[in-house]
Amino acid sequence: MAKCLDSLGVIVFAGCLDSAGKGAETLRTTCSSNLHVVQLDVTNDEQIDEVFCMIKNNCKELWGVVNNAGIGCWGAVEIVSMEWIQRTMDINTYGVVRVCKKFLPLIRISRGRIVNISSVRGLSSRALNSGYCMSKFALETLSDSLRREMKRFGVHVSVVEPANFSLATEGGAPEKLDIPLRADWDTITGELKSVYPREEYVEQYLANSIKNKEMCGAKKDTTPINEAVLDGLFSRQPCCRYLIGGTDKIMDIGKVYVFLNWFLPCRTMDRILEGDSPHRVISKK
């Protein structure tokens, strides 16, 4: 996304969790001098303040903010740790609030744009994914409220909702899922371990996650997401929402579930989703 904006000649301040990391270094070596890599942990108020001062002191105006920071959170509500849930909310939701509160004064002056990167999971929740889903549902309603608040200032707020782009980042890779799933399972009581056997809960969950990605044709190419962000930033009439399919199949099943979720009864959706979720690995005892 940062590379895409840089290629258009836009001055970009690319916030990185680790400004000395591999990703940050790639941006430095492949982008123009218009792109500035900055250290930014969206849970750290001091770092947000530093970036704000840098932009305010060096730029005539700030046109847009793209909130893209996010992490995943997988597991049953009974098992996943509160620490993991809290961190997910702190980054995916409260991080957006922190950044918006800090930079909105500059955006109001320029009558600019806010683009929040949400997810299809903010519109249709899934089993064993509650921490992530609730963080994105919260981001959806935050974006709606903020859009209505900012309308009188001429500021537009858009939300981008990518569907099946799980291969585009390392966050959903098996090795990333494996460690926290096992760590959480190791801490639960013996009674819960009998309800959620490790062989079924961890190993089969991972196996089914990989299978689902392959069957649904998850995309690596984020071009459709970048195009939505560009439209949100620069279109004269940006959309409030951009629901972006990410499959190389005929249709993205994630988008289909969103539309079905709007019209079908809850119990019907429960039955549909039960057959297409790693949740089915938890057998009845």
TrEMBL record:
Which superkingdom heads the taxonomic lineage of this protein's source?
Eukaryota
Under Gene Ontology molecular function, one entry of this record is:
oxidoreductase activity
Any Pfam family hit? adh_short
| InterPro entries to which the protein is assigned, alphabetical | NAD(P)-bd_dom_sf, Sc_DH/Rdtase_CS, SDR_fam
Carries keyword Cell inner membrane?
no
Q: Does the keyword Nuclease apply?
A: no
Q: Which Gene3D superfamilies match?
A: NAD(P)-binding Rossmann-like Domain
Swiss-Prot/TrEMBL keywords: Oxidoreductase
Q: Name one GO biological process term.
A: steroid metabolic process
Membership in a protein family: Belongs to the short-chain dehydrogenases/reductases (SDR) family.
Query: Which PANTHER family does this chain map to?
Result: D-BETA-HYDROXYBUTYRATE DEHYDROGENASE, MITOCHONDRIAL (PTHR43313:SF36), SHORT-CHAIN DEHYDROGENASE/REDUCTASE FAMILY 9C (PTHR43313)
| Protein's name according to its UniProt entry | D-beta-hydroxybutyrate dehydrogenase, mitochondrial isoform X4
Q: Which organism was this protein described from?
A: Lingula anatina
